[in-house]
C-alpha cells in the first residue's frame, strides 16, 4: 500500500467552491481500481491550505488514476481555484 499526499493552496474566498470540487474528485476516485480511501484536512489558522491523504493499493494504481481522463476532467474544476500547482508526494511504508 502507498499513500499520496497532495498539498493545495486555495484562492481566498473560494473555499466553499473548492470543497464542492474536492468532494466531486473523491467521489470519482472511489471507483478507481486500487483506491483504498482518503481524507481531506485543512490547516489550523490557514483556511486556504489543504492536505489530501489518499491510500492506494500500489504505485501502478495511483499512476493509472493520476493519468486518467476522469481525473483530468475532475481537475478542471479544481485547478482554477488554486493559487499554485498542487504538490504531490508519494510514500510507502518502511519496515521498522
UniProtKB/TrEMBL annotation:
Residues 2-91 form the ABM domain. Coiled coil: none annotated. GO terms for molecular function: monooxygenase activity. Gene3D superfamilies: 3.30.70.100. Keywords: Monooxygenase, Oxidoreductase. Pfam families: ABM. It comes from the Bacteria. This is Antibiotic biosynthesis monooxygenase family protein.
Amino acid at each position: 500500500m502507498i499513500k499520496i499526499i497532495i498539498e493545495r493552496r486555495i484562492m481566498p474566498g473560494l473555499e466553499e467552491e473548492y470543497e464542492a470540487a474536492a468532494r466531486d474528485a473523491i467521489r470519482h476516485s472511489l471507483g478507481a481500481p486500487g483506491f483504498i480511501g482518503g481524507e481531506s484536512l485543512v490547516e489550523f489558522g490557514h483556511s486556504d491550505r489543504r492536505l489530501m491523504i489518499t491510500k492506494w493499493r500500489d504505485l501502478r494504481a495511483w499512476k493509472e488514476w493520476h493519468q486518467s481522463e476522469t481525473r483530468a476532467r475532475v481537475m478542471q474544476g479544481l485547478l482554477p481555484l488554486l493559487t499554485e500547482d498542487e504538490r504531490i508526494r508519494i510514500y510507502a511504508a518502511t519496515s521498522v
